[in-house]
Amino acid sequence: MDLDNLKTLWNKEDVSETPEISPEKQRQIHHPLERIRKNMRYEFWSTVVLMPFVLIAIWFFPLPFRFTLYIEILVVSMVLVTVFFFGKFFKLYKEISNPTLGTYDSLKDLLHQFELNKQYYLSFYLSFVPFFVCEMIIVIESIPHTHHYTNGYLTLVFIGSVLFGLSLLYFIGNWWFRHFYGKYIDKIKLLVEEMKQN
């Protein structure tokens, strides 16, 4: 088959445009998207308020200089990690604000973005594991060493505290994502599935 025949076949090919989403479906999708955007704004501003408050709270406690310094360095490091992840978060926020979500393919792409951001969200919580472990080390090291606290006892307290803290972090992170984002993403998935069947 020569090039001219290929061009002719290509031109005859009926390339249908991506199906448009009806105004009714767009209204149904708008509500969960708006709730996600509202929750993203809430999470962003609550974090912006919380971080300086944590630093100020550290300064008001009469702690040894080394202890205060280590905690401040950890909090500043956590802020840097948070800024990185909020950069990813903001890209999704802008994508949700995009008024061109009028096609089925654009919705599928948005669902893909939600999946990526869920992974970012989980990575965000996992990134706090080393910070939590470091904070526990600082706390254990700041306990005055007396004969009441044996090495075995301190080891058990440390391991128990880390396991409890990490479990709490995991469950709170999952609950937080599910409550603020997951249920709305599921609604959008159902609407996309309905459109796929039609």
What does this 3D model show about the protein?
With 198 residues, this protein is mainly alpha-helical. It has one domain. The protein contains six helices and no strands. α3 packs antiparallel against α5. The radius of gyration is 25 Å and the shape is elongated. About 3% of the residues have low confidence.
Question: In a few lines, what is going on in this structure?
Answer:
The protein is mainly alpha-helical.
List the topology elements.
Elements: H1 3-12, H2 23-60, H3 65-97, H4 104-126, H5 129-142, H6 151-197
Any key phrases for this structure?
198 residues; mainly alpha; 83% helix; 0% strand
Can you give the mean pLDDT? 78
Low-pLDDT residue spans:
13-18
Identify the quaternary structure here.
single chain
Helix content: over 70%
Q: Tell me the number of structural domains.
A: 1
- Note the total helix count: 6
Inertia-based shape: elongated
Instruction: Kindly state the number of beta strands.
Output: 0
Strand % is: under 5%
Major β-sheet, in short?
none
Termini separation: 38 Å
> How does the helix and strand content classify structurally?
mainly alpha
The succession of helices and strands, N to C, reads HHHHHH
What does the radius of gyration come to?
A: 25 Å
